[in-house]
Design brief:
Blueprint (H helix, E strand, L loop, with lengths): L51 H20 L7 H11 L2 H11 L8 H29 L17 H11 L1 H4 L5 H13 L10 H6 L1 H9 L2 H6 L3 H21 L21 H24 L15 H17 L2 H4 L6 H18 L2 H11 L11 H10 L1
Helix pairs in contact: 1-2, 1-3, 1-13, 1-15, 2-11, 3-9, 4-5, 4-13, 7-9, 7-12, 11-12, 13-15
Length: about 400
């Protein structure tokens, strides 16, 4: 760590009171009426508005998600693309999940919070899991593609995981050592091939430590990584990660970073799976801290887009998969040249940015942020209060 004296930076404000901190996490892979993976942000102490740091972090992370999906077809023919792909995959989803956990700290089984969990996570999962199945039937000429809510397809795994993680939040808040316990569960999952594919439980369990870590963080922890010394140190750390990924690219599969398979399913022994799970957890934490250190704390042109990351996350999946189904990367060889790779990266960033904008959110709010008041019983106490006030 460099010894440069830290420059004064605005300390991130504390999270809202319990009544406000539990807004449904969504992505971006999961923000107020927002549409992001993490829920409502803490307000600015002066204005009461959303904290721009978290919206900025969500937007930048969703851009990296989209870019990563665009690089996947390029990795077979480019070692550099594979190295960049592996490096980004080491931290972009952990960053989302940590923020999701941070904004789940006040979640309990209160009626209004359960309703938001259903309308903001469960309902979008059902709708988009169904939509993706029909899309694959049409775009991939696969009429046999099943509609199975027990087997998430492509991006929808995150919504299932978020639903389960959030329901378990009260349990993690009462155990003495939540992070070591979550890591132990992740390690055990990574060596248990019999878990199966139902609800993508391998991912739910292997990514669990990041959510629990988020539950354990406080505002001062995010401020800590924003110090100048951390920002400076992040440059050689990212460079070292890229060099290591370039070395590892022909020697290991990037499937390790998906956390969706056990070690045995990846063709190795159980003890290597345990070691890899621990090593990747440490690597992801370091790179996520580096990522957070460079996220602006001030309001920027893209801050408003951070409220729409759920939209960008779920909608860009149709184009990401469609590009494979329709053979774009096979039909246009120039996409596999350095100039083509840059073009693909810029297009992916532009597309997901457009999908996070307010007009798109307005059109698709019915699917991602439905109110569904008709589906829930009214609280008799609320009705009585209305009568009294009348």
């Amino acid at each position: 760590m460099f010894s440069a004296a830290p420059t004064p930076r605005r300390v991130l404000p504390p999270a809202r009171a319990a009544a406000d901190t539990d807004r449904t996490d969504r992505t971006e892979t999961t923000a107020g009426p927002s549409g992001g993976p993490e829920g409502a942000e803490p307000p600015s102490p002066k204005s009461g508005s959303r904290n721009p740091f978290f919206d900025n972090a969500k937007y930048l992370a969703i851009v990296l998600v989209a870019m990563g999906h665009s690089w996947e077809p390029l990795t077979d023919g480019s070692r550099a693309a594979e190295a960049l792909y592996m490096t980004v995959y080491a931290f972009h989803m952990p960053a989302f999940i940590i923020i999701s956990g941070y904004f789940s700290r006040s979640f309990d089984m209160r009626k209004d919070r359960l309703q938001r969990l259903i309308t903001g996570v469960a309902v979008p999962y059902v709708l988009f899991e169904t939509a993706y199945a029909f899309f694959k039937r049409w775009a991939d000429n696969d009429p046999g593609q099943p509609i199975s809510l027990l087997d998430p397809w492509f991006l929808t795994w995150f919504l299932v995981a978020l639903f389960i993680w959030r329901l378990t939040t009260p349990l993690w808040q009462i155990v003495r050592w939540p992070i070591p316990l979550a890591v132990a569960i992740a390690v055990l999952a990574s060596v248990s091939p019999d878990i199966g594919d139902d609800l993508d439980l391998q991912r739910v369990l292997q990514f669990l430590p990041f959510f629990v870590l988020g539950l354990s963080l406080r505002a001062e922890h995010f401020a800590m990584v924003q110090r100048r010394a951390v920002r400076i140190a992040s440059v050689p750390l990212f460079a070292a990660a890229l060099v290591m990924a370039y070395w590892a690219a022909p020697r290991m599969t990037s499937a390790w970073f998906y956390h969706r398979d056990s070690a045995q399913e990846l063709g190795t022994t159980w003890w290597i799976g345990a070691v890899m799970t621990l090593a990747l957890f440490g690597c992801s934490i370091v790179l996520t801290a580096c990522f957070f250190s460079w996220v602006p704390t001030r309001r920027t042109w893209f801050t408003v887009l951070g409220a729409g990351t759920l939209y960008g996350y779920l909608l860009h999946g149709f184009l990401a998969k469609g590009s494979r189904f329709w053979g774009w990367f096979d039909d246009y060889a120039w996409l596999h040249t350095p100039l083509g790779e840059i073009a693909v990266t810029l297009i992916a960033g532009a597309v997901v940015t457009a999908l996070c904008t307010p007009p798109v959110r307005k059109v698709f709010r019915f699917a991602m942020e439905p109110t569904m008041a008709w589906a829930f019983r009214k609280d008799p106490a609320d009705t009585a209060r209305v009568r009294v006030s009348a």
